[in-house]
Amino acid sequence: MEARRIFEERRAVNFFDPKQELESSTLQAIINLAVLAPSAFNLQPWRVIAVKSAAGKQRLYHQASNQAKIVEAPVTLIIVGDRAGYEAGNPVWDELADMQTPEKLKETQDFARLLYGTSEERRIKFAESNAGLLAMSIMYAAKCFGVDSHPMSGIDFSGIKTEFSLQEAEEAVMLVALGYFDHSKTLYPRRKRRGYADIVEEA
């Protein structure tokens, strides 16, 4: 699909056809395309929990304001951000180890820690901003494969962290439901977006 059409036709779909499954191969292709999203130092401080089973959907449903999309969509992704993803234990640093001297690598790691690890606010920003880039990339990648999506942040973040056994440094950033629009329903027309003149301040 042409890139411009992807932007113009992607919608936050409220109604999913519960009878139409999302093939595992399609989901894998979506994720494998979406991970081309940028991230700080290419650290990719994220992971995804794909909630597909009936039992998993019920667990998530109760942590997501009982939104029907959770049970109707064939899969809902929990986008997880890692507040400590800048630390030396991130395996992505191993790639840089092959490209830099040990001294230069340590300098880069120290700089990343200075940027993202000097306060809890910075750690949260690091996790959420990078995971947010992945989430948007997933929605556009999904549209490339004709798959609809809906992001959700009206959720119990701490409840999801407990229910799905996230690590201490991990946070649920948002949910993204994936599937196919239920054409027996009607979406509201796309609402007007504010453009350049409304949102840009030149300096």
Mean pLDDT: 96
Which topology of the domain at 3-84 and 124-181 does CATH recognise?
Answer: NADH Oxidase
User: What is the top-level CATH class of the domain at 3-84 and 124-181?
Assistant: Alpha Beta
Number of helical stretches of at least 4 residues: 9
State the end-to-end CA separation.
36 Å
Fourth-tier CATH superfamily name of the domain at 3-84 and 124-181: NADH Oxidase
Structural class: alpha+beta
- Major β-sheet, in short? 4 strands, antiparallel
Q: List SSEs in N-to-C order.
A: HHEHHEHHHEHEH
Tell me the overall shape.
globular
- Sequence of strands across the biggest β-sheet: 1-2-4-3
* Cα gyration radius (Å): 19 Å
Unreliable spans: none
Helical residues, percent: 40-55%
Strand content: 5-15%
- Give the beta-strand count: 4
Per CATH, the architecture of the domain at 3-84 and 124-181 is 3-Layer(aba) Sandwich
Q: Could you explain how this protein is built, in words?
A:
This protein has 203 residues and is of the alpha+beta class. It has a domain at 3-84 and 124-181: NADH Oxidase, CATH 3.40.109.10. The protein contains 9 helices and 4 strands. A 4-stranded antiparallel sheet has the order 1-2-4-3, with helices on both faces. α2 packs across α7. The two termini are 36 Å apart.
